[in-house]
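Handout, section B. The chain below has 118 residues.
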Amino acid sequence: VQLQASGGGLVQAGGSLRLSCVASGRPFSRYDMGWFRQSPGKERDIVARILWSGGSTYYADSVKGRFTISRDNAKTTVYLQMDSLKPEDTAVYYCAAKYSGQGTYNYWGRGTQVTVSS
């Protein structure tokens, strides 16, 4: 699976951004998808994930109620809608894929930078 993320940028605190990740190369609907982020000096952490069917989602506590993950299997795209952004959301955001039922995300896209100014 090849993944291409886009949609990052500079936004003021309280603003919104929508990240997109287009997948190609394998049957997209068989893959669970996740968004991760990494700030300088910190580990890469999961932000949200959505199962292959779209029927189950997970969010990190830090983004619950502000971020929404969704997917369009027909467009082989996963989205991350980010609202009420905070400076601490500043990071490089990565999308990732794993075959449904597997434990490890083993396909990664290049990151997209999100910067939230105070």
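Note. DSSP finds no helices and eleven strands in the chain. Compare this with the example in section A.
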